[in-house]
Amino acid sequence: MSEVTNSEDMLASLRARVTDLERELAAAKAEIEHLKLFEKLIESAPDNVVVVNMENKVIYVNQATVTQNGWESAQAMIDFGDITSFVSPEEQQRLNEIVAPQLFQHGRSSWNSTFYRADRSRFAGVCSSFVIADESGVPIAIASFIRDMSEQVRIEQRMIDSERYLSALLESIPIVLFALDNEGRFTRSEGKGLQTLGLQPGQVVGASFFEIYASYPEFIDAARKAIGGDQVNLRIDDGTLGFDHWLAPLTTIDGKPNGMLGVSIDISEQLQAEAAQLRFQEEMIAGQRQALRELSTPLVPIADGVLAMPLVGTIDDNRAQQIMETLLEGIAERQADVAILDITGVRVVDTQVADALLRVARASRLLGTRIILTGIGAEVAQTLVGLGADMSGLHTAATLKEGIAAALGDQTLS
Question: What does pTM read for this prediction?
Answer without folding.
Answer: 0.45
